[in-house]
C-alpha cells in the first residue's frame, strides 16, 4: 500500500440539512462501507485508509482538502 495515501484528511462542512457522506471500499469490488448524515453547520473529518478508497458526498457542502476548497452540490448553469 502506498504510504502517501495515508494521513490525508478531508473535512466536510454541511451547508444544508441532510448532506450524505458515503465511504467506499478498496479492492477488486468497490462497495459501500460507511454512511453519515450531516445537518447544516455540522462538520465531518475523514481519512483515506487501506479500507477506504473513495468518499461520495451528496448535498450542498464545502469540502476542505490540503489542495483547496471544493463547493459540493453547486452546479454552474
Give the number of domains. 1
Output the number of helix runs: 0
Order of helices and strands: EEEEEEE
Computed Rg: 13 Å
Would you tell me the overall average pLDDT? 84
Work out the strand percent: over 45%
CATH topology: Immunoglobulin-like
What does this 3D model show about the protein?
The protein has 77 residues and is mainly beta. It has one domain: Immunoglobulin-like. The chain has strands at residues 9-14, 19-25, 32-38, 43-47, 52-58, 61-65, 68-72. The strands form two sheets. A four-stranded antiparallel beta sheet has the order 4-1-6-7, with no helix packed on it. A hairpin with a 2-residue loop joins strand 6 and strand 7. The protein is globular and about 35 Å long. The model has no long low-confidence stretch (mean pLDDT 84).
Question: What tags apply to this protein structure?
Answer:
mainly beta, globular, 77 residues, four-stranded antiparallel β-sheet, single chain, three-stranded antiparallel β-sheet, Immunoglobulin-like
Note the topology.
Elements: E1 9-14, E2 19-25, E3 32-38, E4 43-47, E5 52-58, E6 61-65, E7 68-72
Antiparallel strand pairs: 1-4, 1-6, 2-3, 2-5, 6-7
What's the short version?
By secondary structure, this protein is mostly beta strands. It has no helices and seven strands. The protein has one domain (3-72): TRAP-like (Immunoglobulin-like).
